[in-house]
ABC transporter ATP-binding protein (Plantactinospora sonchi), 295 residues
Amino acid sequence: MTEPALRAVGLTKRYGRHLALSDCTLDIPAGRVVGLVGPNGAGKTTLLQLAAGMLTPTAGTIEVLGGRPASGTAQLAKVGFVAQDTPVYAGLSIADHLRFGASANPRWDQPTAEERIAQLGLDLRQKAGRLSGGQRAQLALTMAVAKRPELLILDEPVASLDPVARREFLKGLMSFTAEHGASVILSSHLMSDLERVCDYLIVLVASRVRVAGDVDDLLDGHFRLTGPRRDLDDLPDGMEIIEESHVERQSTLIVRADVPLDGTSFTVEQLTLEDLVLSYMSQAMSSRPVLEPTR
């Protein structure tokens, strides 16, 4: 049986009295491109840094590819990480970066690194500090994928890029996953990017996982219902309200349902991925009790 890309049970991280991540339980299958979404301060970076071994849990457990994060050379070699600021060394040339990568990573793939740099039209002699934001992001991605990782973790790497640079970065990412079958966890606020590349979704709000699962399954199981205002207590069993709004004569509901909706008096619409994410964010900020996360 294939080990999951990431498994967390009751994972919690505190900084003093501040709760950065709370009772996170996840089981992410291998070979997926995972979108991690949520507002600023939700705990996304904390979760990714725990997965990369840059932080240790306050409580609970986390395994990455069957092992404890950063527990040894072999485990470190399995994971590539690109932080939000796509860090590179300004005073080093691109060639220096590739030499450093080769010396630090036992599975380093120099031909892949050189091929990516050539495809990007970059000069190996050029100093990283003189690259554009998009070029620095591509260099950071090159360093990560040339490790030949089994899991690639990306913490909002395209947040500051213009649309063309963002598109090129995502093209490079998808080329890597298609060729090597690696797992990817991509944190981003940009729903259009996630819709293009992700097949698995995690929504994290206020340090807690609100929903997680296969994108197609989530979209197939969530709906917008619009109809005459009514008592919501008589909704069918198997239907849970994620978000609701009401005007004088009309109710609009976002629901998760595992029952047929044909017999209801509501007009039923499918949700977009953005609709679904925003609904769970709104739910987390309201007084409605939080639903158990979808596994």
Q: What stands out?
A: Residues 221-285 form one domain.
